[in-house]
């Protein structure tokens, strides 16, 4: 199994704080610091966070910055001037142990849903620019908070003004699973999967030549051979879809990177109920009396609606017993907002004497801004 332990990045943007967000002024005079190249970003292994080392190269495209100061934010704690750069181009390194020391905590204090946010203050020859989102006050007709505006974000996808380190527990010992590395993903991650049927026709979705795969047939039964999966669409009255970013992808714009490898499975704007069903994994309960099933998921940060839903569940079998359904996750509306923006895991925990698992995902989302990603689906066993 591949393990890539780097960091997740959430990119925002900057604008002038005192000139009404005029695009030309922002680009010409604003304090804009960029990464020279967008690094590879995935969550950090929480069990090895003290040994994390992240290095990035930054540049000043406007040639007017005199300093770049990062504030570290963790829960309700802020550490000003955590890191300062005073010449450009330049590079900086952030160590996990330095973060822990600055916060006065240890690795044992961390939780998997923790994150470390870094917000830049850029001092230029024209003023000071803060990498926090603008908060417009309609009562005073003034913008408050920071200096970030969406128009500069679209012009500078490499900006280094607001980013996060996120965490994850390393996956347990795998019995079988998939990280979506074997199926085909289009070279251009923005390319859509295009339906060959009418938008609202129900049934199984099939792979199309040259497009991201929505189904996969397993090619082997070994530990490192990925299991298969299939996709289905069911109408819920929202009209269905003709072409969307659905299927296996290498897109990292939202997630920063994947838990295991360079590919995952993406959903957006299905305007119906989308079902992803994984192949049944059979288990010998004599050899493996305790097993479990899990999958990593990531919800893009947006405004999730009341009718948006995500349910992850498994059909399990025991010798001589009827098939049961166990629920790993069931969220809708504001519950989705509560878990967005980070890789998270839906997990059964260890179960006794299971003979088979079939993992199923149901999702209903109806906006192009609503995107869900999946990675690292595992049926697992204890380490020893």
Task: Characterise this structure.
The protein has helices spanning 23-29, 96-103, 150-155, 334-337, and strands at 34-35, 44-45, 53-59, 65-74, 77-85, 90-95, 115-124, 127-130, 134-137, 142-145, 162-168, 173-178, 193-194, 203-205, 229-234, 243-244, 247-249, 264-268, 273-278, 281-282, 290-299, 309-318, 324-332, 343-347, 351-352, 354-364, 371-381. It has 384 residues and is mainly beta. It has two domains: 23-168, Sandwich (Immunoglobulin-like); 173-381, Galactose-binding domain-like (Jelly Rolls, Sandwich). A hairpin with a 5-residue loop joins strand 22 (309-318) and strand 23 (324-332).
Compile the SSE list and pairings.
Elements: H1 23-29, E1 34-35, E2 44-45, E3 53-59, E4 65-74, E5 77-85, E6 90-95, H2 96-103, E7 115-124, E8 127-130, E9 134-137, E10 142-145, H3 150-155, E11 162-168, E12 173-178, E13 193-194, E14 203-205, E15 229-234, E16 243-244, E17 247-249, E18 264-268, E19 273-278, E20 281-282, E21 290-299, E22 309-318, E23 324-332, H4 334-337, E24 343-347, E25 351-352, E26 354-364, E27 371-381
Parallel strand pairs: 2-11
Antiparallel strand pairs: 1-3, 3-6, 4-5, 4-7, 7-8, 7-11, 9-10, 12-27, 13-16, 14-15, 15-19, 17-18, 18-27, 19-26, 20-26, 21-24, 21-25, 21-27, 22-23, 22-26
């Amino acid at each position: 199994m591949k393990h890539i332990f780097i960091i997740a990045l959430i990119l925002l943007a900057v604008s002038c704080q005192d000139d009404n967000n005029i695009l030309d002024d922002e680009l010409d005079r604003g304090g804009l610091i960029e990464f020279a190249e967008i690094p590879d970003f995935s969550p950090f292994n929480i069990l090895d966070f003290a040994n994390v080392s992240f290095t990035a190269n930054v540049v000043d495209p406007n040639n007017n910055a005199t300093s770049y100061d990062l504030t570290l934010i963790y829960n309700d704690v802020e550490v000003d001037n955590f890191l300062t750069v005073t010449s450009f181009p330049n590079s900086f390194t952030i160590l996990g142990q330095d973060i822990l020391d600055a916060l006065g905590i240890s690795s044992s204090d961390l939780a998997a849903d923790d994150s470390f946010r870094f917000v830049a203050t850029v001092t230029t020859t024209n003023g000071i620019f803060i990498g926090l989102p603008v908060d417009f006050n309609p009562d005073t007709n003034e913008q408050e908070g920071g200096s970030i505006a969406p128009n500069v974000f679209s012009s500078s996808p490499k900006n280094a003004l607001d980013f996060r380190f996120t965490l994850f527990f390393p996956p347990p010992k795998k019995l079988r699973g998939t990280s979506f590395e074997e199926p085909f993903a289009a070279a251009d991650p923005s390319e859509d999967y295009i339906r060959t049927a009418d938008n609202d026709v129900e049934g199984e979705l099939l792979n199309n030549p040259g497009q991201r795969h929505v189904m996969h047939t397993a090619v082997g039964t070994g530990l490192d051979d990925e299991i298969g999966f299939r996709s289905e669409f069911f109408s819920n009255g929202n009209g269905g879809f003709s072409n969307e970013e659905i299927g296996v992808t290498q897109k990292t714009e939202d997630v920063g990177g994947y838990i295991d490898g360079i590919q995952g499975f993406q959903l957006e704007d299905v305007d119906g109920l989308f079902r992803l069903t994984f192949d049944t994994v059979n288990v010998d309960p004599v050899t493996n009396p305790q097993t479990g099933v899990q999958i990593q998921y990531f919800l893009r940060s947006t405004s999730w609606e009341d009718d948006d839903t995500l349910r992850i569940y498994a059909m399990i079998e025991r010798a001589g017993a009827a098939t049961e359904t166990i629920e790993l996750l069931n969220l809708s509306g504001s519950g989705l907002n509560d878990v967005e923006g980070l890789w998270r895991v839906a997990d059964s925990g260890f179960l006794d004497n299971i003979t088979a698992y079939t993992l199923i995902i149901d999702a209903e989302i109806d906006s192009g801004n609503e995107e869900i990603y999946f990675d690292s689906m595992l049926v697992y066993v204890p380490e020893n």
